[in-house]
Amino acid sequence: MAAPRTLRELAEYLGGTVAGDESKTVTGVASLDDAGDHQITFLANPRYASKVATTGAGAVVLPQGAERHGRNAIHVANPYLAFAKLLTLFHVAPREPKGVMAGAHVGQNVTMGSDVTIHPGAVVGDGARLGDRVTVYPGAVIYEGVTVGDDVTLHANVVVYQGCRIGSRVTIHAGTIIGSDGFGYAPDGDGFYKIPQLGIVVIEDDVEIGANTTIDRAALSATVIGRGTKIDNLVMIAHNCIIGENCTIVSQVGISGSTKLGKRVTLAGQVGVAGHLEIGDNVMVGAKSGIPGNVAAGSMLSGIPAYNHRDWLRVSAMVPKLPELKKTVAELEKRIRELEEKQGA
């Protein structure tokens, strides 16, 4: 457990300002409902502002100008970010390096930096290059010729195929496959001829990839995941895709081959993207949407096929009313027929 910190120290760490007792010490972080006198909590959603008055916390991280109800407080521009930093400070202990542990297999001509940990059951192939402070958990397999940067964590049963490159400060969670063959086949009579997938996958710096995700290698060049992008569990990214910087790709998204995403694109859960498309910067796509064509920068889309999100909201609000609307239209049609019959009589 981290050492106790005063609110003054925490405010300096977070870039905020203290209201109340600067000398008050806290030893950890908890929710508004559960925090005690020696813990700090936070308010990011104004819906829960009333809980600041009743929390048992010794201090609260608040947005600038928020009412503190007499509580010790640290005012910051982004309480949710401050919460993440406090959790890291108090509760995330640095790993102690353990070297190559018994039961791990390291191939020939492998280069490793300092403070590396290779757990039992992990495999590092010939000619691989690992940077400083790399951790490879049990069952993870690094094929031959893979390059891994500094401060990388590969969790249990991650597989990185031959020649792929992983940048620094990357975390890949259990069961994810990097660099499996792209889905490429040429028609050959009644069957198919496999197209050799000769490219690689490049994961740039500061990327995090969830569990059981698959990212296919390119046919000839590289499938690229841009710097700072965050990918959830159970995502499929096909061969030759280029994912821009700081994108957010949520669970069960599928992106077809040779599609290019710009910077800061958000794809919500179960979005499906067709192949050979371009999606511009700062696009947001709602859950379960289908993207059949190119998307202009700054667009906000939902639906199957996807269209303007605001229009989709209006249409969705009408759907429950359709049975009654159909009944009303049928009644109006009946009345019109009756009037026409009377006029023709």
TrEMBL record:
GO terms for biological process: lipid A biosynthetic process. The active site is at 239 (proton acceptor). CDD domains: LbH_LpxD. Pfam families: Hexapep, Hexapep_2, LpxD. The keyword Lipid biosynthesis applies. Its EC number is 2.3.1.191. Residues 25-89 form the UDP-3-O-[3-hydroxymyristoyl] glucosamine N-acyltransferase non-repeat region domain. It is an enzyme of class 2 (transferase). GO terms for molecular function: N-acyltransferase activity; UDP-3-O-[(3R)-3-hydroxyacyl]-glucosamine N-acyltransferase activity. GO terms for cellular component: membrane. Keywords: Acyltransferase, Lipid A biosynthesis, Lipid biosynthesis, Lipid metabolism, Repeat, Transferase. Pathway: Bacterial outer membrane biogenesis; LPS lipid A biosynthesis. It catalyses: a UDP-3-O-[(3R)-3-hydroxyacyl]-alpha-D-glucosamine + a (3R)-hydroxyacyl-[ACP] = a UDP-2-N,3-O-bis[(3R)-3-hydroxyacyl]-alpha-D-glucosamine + holo-[ACP] + H(+). Homotrimer. Belongs to the transferase hexapeptide repeat family. LpxD subfamily. Catalyzes the N-acylation of UDP-3-O-acylglucosamine using 3-hydroxyacyl-ACP as the acyl donor. Is involved in the biosynthesis of lipid A, a phosphorylated glycolipid that anchors the lipopolysaccharide to the outer membrane of the cell. This is UDP-3-O-acylglucosamine N-acyltransferase.
